[in-house]
Each structure stands twice: as C-alpha cells, then as structure tokens.
Amino acid sequence: ISTSPFGRFQVILLLLAFVQSVLVVGWCFTEMEAGPGAAMSTQTNGDRFKIEGRAIVPGVKTQDWVSTARVLVDGEEHVGFLRTDGSFAVNDVPSGSYVVEVVTPTYRFEAVRVDITSKGKMRYARLVNYIKTSEVIRQPYPLQIRSSGPHSYFMKRETWGWTDFLMNPMVMMMVLPLLIIVLLPKVVNTNDPEMRKEMEQSMNMLNPNPELPDVSELMTKLFSGSKGSSKAGSSSKGTRPAAKRR
Amino acid sequence: MAELILLWLKCIILYNAVDAVFEDQVGKFDWRQQYVGKVRFSHFDTHVQSSKKVIVATENNVFAALNTRTGELFWRHVDKSGPEGNIDALLHHGQDAILVVGNGRLLRSWDVNVGGLNWEIVLDSGSFQKACLVGQQGTVKHVAVLKKNIISLHYLSNGHQKWIENLPDSETVDYQTVYSGGNGEVYALGIVPHSHIVIIAYSTDDGEIIKQISVEAPWLSNIVASCAVIGQGVLICVDSATPSLYMYNLNPNMDDLQMTQIPLQSLGLEVAPDFQPVLVSHQPNSAHQPLSEFFLQLGPDNFLLLQFNNGQIVTLRDFKPALLVSFATTGEKTIAAVMSPKNKTACSINLFSAETGRRLLDTTLIFVMDPNGGKPEKIYIQPFLKKDDSVGYRAMVQTEDHTLTFIQQPGRVMWIREEALSDVVTMEMVDLPLTGTQAELEGEFGKKADGLMSMVFKRLSSQLILLQAWISHLWKLFYDARKPRSQVKNEVTIENLSRDEFNLQKMMVMVTASGKLFGIDSKTGSILWRHYLNDVPSNAAFKLMVQRTTAHFPHPPQCTLLIKDKDTGLTTLHVFNPIFGKKSHVTPPALPQPILQSLLLPLMDQDYAKVLLLVDDQYKVSAFPSTKNVLQQLQEMASSIFFYLVDSSQGRLSGYRLRTDLSTEQIWEVVIPMEIQRIVSVKGKRPNEHVHSQGRVMGDRSVLYKYLNPNLLAVVTESTDTHQERSFVGIILIDGVTGRIIHEAVQRKARGPVHIVHSENWVVYEYWSTKSRRNEFSVIELYEGMELYNSTVFSSLDRPHAPQVLQQSYIFPSAISTMEATLTEKGITSRHLLIGLPSGGILSLPKMFLDPRRPEIVSEQSREENLIPYAPELMIRTEWFINYNQSISRVRGIHTSPSGLESTCLVVAYGLDIYQTRVYPSKQFDVLKDDYDYMLISSVLLALFFATMISKRLAEVKLLNRAWR
C-alpha cells in the first residue's frame, strides 16, 4: 500500500501552515503603531507656555466626540479642552518635559512627549518611550494627533459553531488523514499499473530534484547506520515503520 | 527568534487568561452615576424656547449641561481640581457660555449646544474681581473683565482683546465691580473703605476714560455686599447703621459728589437687629438697563419688593415670612419668585409680577422638604409663556446638603440630583439582613440540640417553609409572566431588601464631605436612605466602622461614624443603623478631649457589638460600648492590646500598650528626622483580609513561606528637599507591636504622590521617577524562607528571624489616581490591583505582573512556577478596564468588598462619579458562566445517547448476522 507518502505530505503541509500562523502572530506584535505627534506653536506668556495641537478622528464629525474629550498633560497636572474644530491649546504650562495625551472614552490616541526648554522657546514633540527616555523620534512639524481607531474594551465571546470545530487544526489533523486512509484505497485502484505510474509521476513533481534523497529516508539511513542494523532509536520511530512498509 | 516567538505565545496565553468584560455584559452587573458637585452658578438655556438645558458651574470645577426633563447630563467638562480650575464667573449669552477660570487666569467660551470649546484665552495676571457682558445698540458683542488693577474688553466671537486699561490708583482703591447698561459705556466701581467710591466710565469703543469721579461714602465698606445697580443706571447702596438707602446716578456727565440718602424709616421700614441688609437686582438682557424693581432683604425671613420711580422709592410688596427670592424673565415678562415656608415640612413658591408686585394666579408650587435633608439655599426659576400668554414655570431648588430638586407645578418632583455624592469621603459595604424565612432556617443550625424528635420536627418544618417559599415564587413568576413586561416592576425598597443567594447585593453606606450619609443598593444604584448631619464642620475627617453586622438577628446592625474636626481634634460619634439609616437609640459617649486614634477591637459585648477604643490626647482610653462586660473583657485582654500613634508634624511614630486600668504606656518610638523627610502615609493591612495559602510552591517542589505579619505597617516618607536630583521616596516596614523595623527601602530621584497597597506579604507602591520622568511601580514581598518558625500562631514578640525581602520595579505608562487590591471571601482567588487612571479608566492589573520573582532569564523552574519573564514596562490594555467606556472622573477611592462567592469581588469606585461592578480575578470558577451553553451540552448528551443506542442495535444485528454465517 502506498498511502504513507500522502499522509506524510499532509502532515508537512499542516506543519507549514502552523509555522506560518505563528509568524503572523509574531508580526502582529512587532508592528508598532506609528502615531504622529502634536503640532506646537511658540507663544510665551511670562514663564508660562502653551501647548497647541489638533486631534483628528478620521471619518467622525468633531461635534460627536469633542464634548467627551480632554487633553491631559502629565496625568491631570494640566488640563485642556478641545475646540469644536478639534484643535486644542493647553495654557499656563511651565517649561519642562511633558506627556500630552488626548483622552476620550471612545477613541484611542497616541501619547506624545513635548519638551519646553526653560530659556529658549524651542520645543519639540516626540513619541513617548518610557524605556529609552533619551531617545528622540522627532515628530514632523507641524503635525496633528490622529486617532488610531476606537478603543477595544470587550473580549469576544467564544461562540461554538460547526465551522470552528471543523477548522480546528487538531481536528483537521485527525480527520483528514483518517479520511485518506479509509477512502483512498477504495477510490483509487492501486492494483492498476497505469494508476501506479501516474502516482509516481505526481510524486516526482512534488520532489523537484530527483537526485536529492528524501529527507526522512536520509534520516532513517543515518540513524540506522549509526546504530548498525540494530533496532532504530526512539527519534526515528515515527518514520521507520513507513519506510519499512514501503 | 524561536525564544521570542515562545515568549509571545506565552504572553498571548497569559493575556487570554485575564478576565475582561464581554460586550453583552454591559450594564448587567455594573452601573455608573455621574455628578457635577455643589452648584455655584446656574443658568437656564433660554435662547431656544424648547431648550431642555440648564447649564451649571460647580465648586468642583465642573461645567456641565443638565437635561431639565430627566436630570441627566448632556455633557460635562471636568477641569483641573484645586484653585487653578476654580470657576470664578459664568456669563451666558445666546448659545455661548463665558467662563472665567483660575482666579481670572483664563477666559473660555463654550458652545452650549455641542459642549465644545469656542475659544480660550489667557488673561493678564491679577486677582479677578468681576466680569460682565457689554452690549451696545441692543446687541451683546463684548465681555468686560475687571481685575485688581486692570480692566479689559474682549470680543465674544473670538475672545480677542479689544482694549485693556490700567485702573488709576489701584494701590489705594479697591475696584470691586463692573457694570454696563448698554449705552456704550463701561463703569468700573471701586472703593476706599469708609471714605469714598471711585466711579470710572470707560468708552466701549476704545477704552478711553470718559469721566472719573469720587463720591463720598464714609459708611460703606464693600460695594458687592451692599450695593446694586437698578433702573437707568442708578447705583443703590444700603447702610445698616443709619439705616438708609443711598442712591447715585451713573451717567457720562455725572458731577454730584454726594449720594442721595433715603432713610428707611421714611419708607416705613425697619431692619432686623444685627442683620446686614442685602439688595437683589436683575438685568434681563445685558444690552439693556436693569429693572427698576429690586428686592431688599431686611431680615432672615423678610424681603421687600421695591420700585425706583422718578427718584422715589415705592414699596410694591412686603414678603414676610419669605426664605428665598429670585427674578426670572421670559420674553418681555419678568417675574419675581418668592419661596415662603408653608409648614414644617413644606415650602410654597409663588410668582409675582415684577412691575406691579401683584400675585400671578395659579402659580403656587409646593416644595416638600426632605426631613433627612437640608434647608433650601437657592432657587432657580425657569419661566415660560403658555399658549394663553400666562406664565408657567419650573423651579430648581438647591438645598444645604447640595441636593438639586427640579419641580414642576403643582409640586411634582421631576428629578433629584444628590450632588453630595460627588464628594464621597469613605464608605463601607454592609450585608443585607436575612428575610424571616432565611433567619428561621439559619436558626435551626444555630441553636443547641434539644432531643431527636424536636430536631426532626424542626427540620421538617423548615423544609416545609422552603417548599412554601418556592411555590409562592413560582406563582409570582407565573403571575408576572401574564402581565405585560412594562408593568412588572422589581423596585427595591427598604421593606423588601434581603440578602440574595450569593450575597452579591449589599448596602453601600457612603459618607460625603458635606455630612450627608447615603444608603445605596449595590445592585441597582438606587438611593434607599439618606441622612443629613447638619452640624458637621467643613473640614471634618470621617471614619466609618461597622460595629455590628447583620449576622446577629434580633440585634439591629450598627455603624459608627467618627467625625473629627481637623483643627481642634474634637470628635463626635454618630451611631446609626446602616440598613435603614436611622439614628440608633444607643447614646454615644461625650468626648470632651481631642481624639488621636480609634481602634475597632475584635472583642464583642454581650449584644455582639464590637468594641471601639478611643485614645484621647492625654493617652487615656475610653471604650464604646462601655458596659461592665466589656470593661471586664478589656481588663483580661489588656496585655495583648497594642496601638500606634503617628505624629506626622513631628515625624514621630510611637507604640503603646494598654494597661488594665485603661491607661497606656509607651513601649516604642521611632523618630524620622523632619529636616530630611516627612511621613506621608501609614498603611496597615485590611482587618477582614484572608490569606489562603501560607507559602508558594517553587519549581523544585519546595515551599517558600510567606511572612504574614498582621501587625505590619508600611510607612511612606518623602524627602523635604524637592530638587529632582536629591529628592527620594522611602518605605519603612515597621512591626506595629514591637516597633521593630523589618525593612527599609529608598527610591532615589523619585517623588510623590505615592500610592500604596499593603496586603498579604506584599507592598506595592507607585511614585514618580524624576530622573527618567516616568511613573514607576515597585513591589516588595516578604518571605520567611523555606521553613516556618511557628506555623500555628503568629506573634510579633516571638519572631527571631528577619524575613527575606524581594523587590522589583517596573515602568508604568500613565499617572495614577488611586489604587486598591481585590478582596475575596477566603483569599483563594488570585489578586488583582485595581488602578484608577486620570483618563477615567479603572485598570485591573493582575498581581502576577508585579512579582519580584519574575526572572530575567527563563528557566525550567520558573516556567514550572508560571512566572512571567521580567519585562520593564507594564502594559495598559483597554480590555483590562473593568469599566469599559464608562469612565469615572477624578477617581479618589476604590472600595473592594468580598461577596459570598469566592470568585467574585465587589468593586465601588468613587470620585466625581460612582461606579459599581463585580470582578472575577480568576474567572468564575465556582459558578456556571452566564454564557454557559446549555443547548450545546444537552444536544451533545442527547446525540451521544442516541449514538450509543443505534450503535448497540447495529452491533446486535452484526453479531446476529455473524452467528448465522
């Protein structure tokens, strides 16, 4: 019976799919949200300064969200409010380094660090980095704080459906080989020599270089070689019976 | 890379293990109430006839619009707390509201409809005096702001300054008010007390001084308190000494140097002794002159409606007794509303025509005063014209206890807002009492056995009672199901309050800064009782203690509120029933001496009330209740009663021991040098906290025992030097019995405010790192080691080994407002920290992330222990917000309370708002989840059942066939 190459192929495919999914997850986590910063303007007022900017929620009218929004500078140290066009100004801020956040219960905004120097009027905005505090990623000037979408507060309920159950990799891994083992010998007449030839051809297509030996076969040879003709080690347990059967 | 992926995977798994809110649970177990605080200014939005808004500015620096139909908020803006966000003035014109904020620092204009800011400008420095709208030719385009030394005029449309002028002689003259009658002039009125008034007329166009004049007024000391402008710009002042009215005509070519005097006697009026008369005038439209009619208050309950007519003053009507008066305008009509006492429990409000003083028909409105509330303080009238051109109105009454009541004719209360709840100081959650049936059942187990037969009968009878209750419950369900859903009401009242199956519903007893106490049902948030204590000093500190719970059935539960005047230290006790809010008939002891410390002992008197010990400034101890039984118990126990005192002004911590004669002796003292650092807070453990496991199982199967000292105190100090290079935060762990310093930790280059949670064997605190300019968390955990010294009982006096101390710090990406740890019945459930953020969210952070044993390098053992690899930054995930988008402004405190279910902890967050919810730190492991899929499990069971039946049948057939073959 020549079911084993198909079964193995299936397993490898599944493995590949699994690795890919892991990579996707990893990629999701490495993707940092690149948020723009706040626009600054310099206007002195004694030794007190002003932090100005503009917040934008793409696709939403400002009237719908400005009444619930606030601008917090270093927690609640200084508070600013948003104008009806989304712009804001936090007045009366002494020189120093501040974290400026736009806070609304519905939309998410990135925090921005703003530095106001004590003598010069130079000030700049940068992304907040609490770990490398000296690192400066300048925000283009002038710029606006753009919302990166609504807050996600809720967990998804685990709903149960037939598709979820069937698409589960474990179930697929169990069911598909089972189907193949049970159904293939019935569908394909393996005693037919033409069919056998066709199958061999398709196997060759999968294996682009016929000179290159099959990995599993190589492994079997390697392990069985090292231990002589004695029983195979535990590591080759899985592949050995298949090779033997062939 | 592979390790990273593993780490990520692990993180994902861990994050998924953390519980969060599901979308369908919104509002199911939680509720929020939003408040604004005590109203300082209020205006009805009148520019649209159908407007339902009333705008309020409050003493909590909140500016909001309320719905007059429901009392709910349209929008609310919460400014910085403290004097910098203080709202000095509110002017209202059309759909703009002008606010002067922070002692005249900022001028803001708000759009009342949207709730958005139109503009905000910074004003020149100077202490704010008064602001007014300035109209010209019938339209209002400017706002004038008067400060101590300058006057400025700003455009209403964009806030730009039109002109600014220095006030002449501002060092000697105290400029107090500004007035504009819509004629193109702005008058600044100043005073040199007991000498003369200075009147300056400015031109609205360019700020030029048109006229400046000094008018003699040696009897006057304050313009704001005793003067008003009426009619065609007549300044009218009242002098209580003479007693008489003085008048002066404000116009561009004024040249009189004297005020016209009209003795009150000539009008036939008399001032109540020792009363400073008050004038109330009304300017319906800033572009026009004020009314010629005004109120004169001559006594605490005596008002007069007077009219100024051609230089003469006419009395239109005398109101006596009258409590409050108010003017209001709708269309062209101006009315005067007068509130007068009707009887002991009710007041009536009547409307009078302002021009004639005639009473308007059908305008009586009855305001029923809450016997547990305060007296009325202010009334705001919203008049409207009915179809037949008569005047109808609604009234908003503000009482001493900060309550707003909105009433409609003839006395229907539309809504009540308990604004005292915006300032909750402390709270407790009290179990609800058992119902009669429940108590009967409990009684069966409580009593001693008295014979087999009687026990059997008792059991049978209690089962019968249960059956009866169940049947009546079923009947009620059936009966309710037939009725339409809208009619079925499950209103909670004091009468039908009873404990639920899992003790999830409790009574929240809340103490507010105004001295009003509330009893709130934790399930629905409805206020079940309220009680106003009217003799509470304004700077009082409160401590609420539950002396007797509801568990001792015939005895009512008992709470004691300790009210201490912070200045004098004098203390009063208020003893009440927490379920009904009624004052207890138990008389609390009179306390003539200032009280330093109070302790609630686990001792109980014969009526199951816990004993409260009060230590006065002579270090004498008094007990409440102080029956013979209690005193005897105290004498026996005295040698094991210790207490500590903190004197933060001298940096001294001292420990005392009780003697049998109820005097005390000092046994230890720790002095923290005041020159270097000061004590910020001292935190012990919560007395009702349970710790389930005494140790932690390590990766190698050995046990690391926790150092569980119930007497441990965490003392937080801050350096007096605030320079960012030299400032530090210190944590000292002291044993409260022996005074032994267990551990000391110092965080250099750090400053407060420090938030601290002390529980089990750990202390978590948060501070500001001045070096890295970020908030940091630090956790200290104490362990006894691999062996327990005395596993049966902990004694502070017998602990020879110092505990092992582990500490780790983390970065937290936000400032925090307050912090508390979850608490459950038996302490089996894992702990979470509940962190109130300035953004209004309450973050539930697993304590697992704050574990000093988090390894930097992952090993097999740490993986076995489920330790998360160390990462410097803690994350804030919005999925961990227990209050999703129901943000809570200015969270000041979080109260956690265990429920009857081990998995569930009840949480109340209070600040400007109140939010109640339940949290499940380890998920709901002891009950079926609310999304439990009954359908799935039953269908699977059925399917399996049928599958076995069928396969059994098939197998039989097969066997039979084989046998035949």
Characterise this structure:
Chain A: Belongs to the EMC7 family. Chain A: Component of the ER membrane protein complex (EMC). Chain A: Keywords: Membrane, Signal, Transmembrane, Transmembrane helix. Chain A: It is a single-pass membrane protein. Chain A: This is Endoplasmic reticulum membrane protein complex subunit 7. The complex is a heterodimer of chains A (246) and B (965). With 246 residues, chain A is α+β, with helices and mostly antiparallel strands. Chain A has six helices and nine strands; from the N terminus they run αβββββββββααααα. Chain A has a five-stranded antiparallel sheet, with no helix packed on it. In chain A, strands 4-1-8 form a three-stranded mixed sheet, with no helix packed on it. In chain A, α1 runs antiparallel to α3. Chain A is elongated and about 95 Å long. Chain B starts with a helix and ends with a helix. The longest helix of chain B is centred in the middle third of the chain and has 31 residues. In chain B, β8 and β9 form a beta hairpin. Chain B is globular, with a radius of gyration of 35 Å. Chain B is mainly beta. Chain B contains seven helices and 63 strands. At the A-B interface, α1, β4, β5 and β9 of A face α1, β1, β6, β9 and β10 of B. β9 of chain A pairs parallel with β1 of chain B, so a sheet runs across the interface.
Any key phrases for this structure?
heterodimer, A: 246 residues, alpha+beta, Immunoglobulin-like, five-stranded antiparallel sheet, three-stranded mixed sheet, 9 strands, 34% helix, 19% strand, disordered N terminus, disordered C terminus, B: 965 residues, mainly beta, six-stranded antiparallel sheet, four-stranded antiparallel sheet, 7 helices, 63 strands, 11% helix
